[in-house]
Amino acid sequence: MHLLLLGVSHRTAPVELREQVDFARRGVPAALDALAERATLTETVVLSTCNRAEVYAASADPVAAAAELSRFMAAFHGVPGQTLERYVFRLVDHEAAGHLFRVAAGLDSLVVGEPQILGQVKDAYATAAERKRTGPLLNRLFHASFTVGKRVRTQTGLGEGAVSVSYAAVSLAKKIFGDLSGLNVLILGAGEMAKLTAVHLKAQEVRRISVASRTLRSAERLAEEIGGEALEWQHVDTALARSEIVITATGATDPVLTRARVEQAMRKRRDRPLFLIDIALPRDVAPDAGDIEQVFLYNIDDLRTIVNENLARRAAELERAEAIVRHEVAQFDQWLRSRGAVPTVVALRRRFEDIRQAELQRLEGKLSGLPPEAKARVDEITHLIVEKLLLTPTEQLKSVSDEAAAVAYADALNRLFGLTATDAAREPAAEDEDQRASSKPGALS
Amino acid sequence: MHTLVLLLYAAAAVAYAVTFTRRDPRAGKLATALLAAAAVAHTFLIGMARMQAGYMPFVGTTAAVSFFVWLLALAYLYTELTAAERAMGVFITPLLVLLQVIPTIDATAPSARPEVLQSPLFTLHVSAVLFAYASFALACMIGVTYVLLFKEIKAKHLGFFYARLPSLQVLDTMNMRAVTVGWAFLTTGVVIGAAWALTADFRASTDPRAQAMTVMDPKILVALVSWALYSFQLFARRAMRWGARRAAWLSAIGFAVVLMNFLPIGYFLTKSHNF
Known about the structure:
The complex is a heterodimer.
Chain A: E1 2-9, H1 15-20, H2 28-36, E2 43-49, E3 52-59, H3 62-77, H4 81-85, E4 89-92, H5 93-105, H6 116-130, H7 136-155, H8 165-177, E5 184-188, H9 192-203, E6 208-212, H10 216-226, E7 229-231, H11 236-242, E8 245-248, H12 259-268, E9 274-278, E10 295-299, H13 300-340, H14 342-362, H15 364-367, H16 372-399, H17 403-416, H18 421-425, H19 432-444
Helix pairs in contact in A: 5-7, 5-13, 6-7, 7-13, 8-9, 8-13, 11-12, 14-16
Chain B: H1 2-22, H2 25-53, H3 61-83, H4 89-105, H5 120-154, H6 160-164, H7 168-197, H8 200-204, H9 208-211, H10 218-239, H11 244-269
């Protein structure tokens, strides 16, 4: 059984093509149903996000399956095969697994380390599992990818620290106030950056956003856009006293908030913390206002410094995340290869068991005189001998990690013990994966 | 048994340190489990002593230290569960280990209860005061972390503590809560103690320690000083313009006074509480 991946992502294709192959248009379940009709693909999962459209499949015949996947992709989305050919990537076995693990860890994302992707991978798997389109291979693969995603999240700092100025301001506010709901935000000025930060704060469900600008018109415009209220400029001091977070972004050349003005507001607010975010250039808040007890003043340069530090820290965490991916890929690969040996192992065991049974049958006449306990002992001892004889060969077979060597081993065993495919096919209800692996040779014979 | 308890506390301290530096949630779960195991073993230890003696085993400072460590462990576990926040463990557990060394070394059987302490008020008085001390210990650690985080944010250098501690607001709330609870228990403990010292039976006692039971005894004097300090903190926070950072400092200073009263004064200076 092999693992196949056919996909298009933001790394390989322009947005125009990604839009054309977006599974969301016709729905992932429809795609899964269409894939189910293609017999060479025994298991399938469709991962569809705004940055990628990927189909993971399991098949015994990787060459035929790859062609099948390409045909499906072109037919399902109505995109000419040649066009698609220029932008898709195909990966097999451990490379496909490695790709999914990197995706789940956020390593393949546009913003490296972003956390949403793991949830999307989980959803993709759940949708396929619901429609019974997953089996032993993809079950194992996707659960391993969840592990990778979780380990990278908890054991590295890959997703940590804000990487944009407005988000850095929000995360600072959270570190000062904890929960932001119930807080009042005041915006002075109506610039683009002020708006962006306000939108982020709005998402944290702050209680009220007030906007004041030199002209009431522009304040009203911004207030309307972000769902806040506009203030007349002369009410700024009142608003300052009741707000916890203040964003300043006016075009004024002199500081709008002097130390004295902030101090006056702090008296009224009984020294509850005040977070001043000054994103104007030249600055709107006098720098010495930041010396006041319980006033936290950050200007645009401070925020940029934080963002740069976070970016550097994330880069330093990349290698640790990649190491986790490599480790999990190696584990998955070993499991995948050991599955290749399953039919041979099953056939070998069946052969030994047949011999044992035949010998017991042959000796039936001589054994019949024995008491039942003694007969049971004979059965037990012969069974143990067979198990012991097979123990090492089974372990060795399953641990062969080189595919060529695995084929050579299987070949040698088939010849030495005269194994036939039917030996394996006769295996009665064994565990799910063994049965699947052994059904293949049986179908051939 | 004493050694086992100490070892469990030490193991928990190490696990909390690992959790804090590596931020590994599995280490965090292990740390909590180890601390819970230590607390359970410690409960067993105290329960055994209680059964042996027939009264609550906190006659003498050493026994009181053991009881205090047990209370602090439980109080911390409670805050960890309710606040879903493990960051404080790294500050609390070393204190538990250091203090638990005393009853481990000095593991003599609890001193016999002198006649003067044979009153139901004894258990109430000691329990209330020790619980207050445990709350103040928590407040102290929370206050220290507040100051550390405050400094990082003020200095615009977001580093080690920024990534590991909860928000200033949460720390402030936890600090004031711990101080309020501690203050209430200390008040109760002191009032019970005073009422008890004024009873006719107590005053009639010929025990020299009962004779020394005056406000001028160092143990009682410093206890009143610490009570005044925490009262001031609560007052200043409400009525004066005292912000969260100053309150955090007061929690740290307050517990230093409490600890001084508990150990050096309790062991060497007091003439009224040296049982």
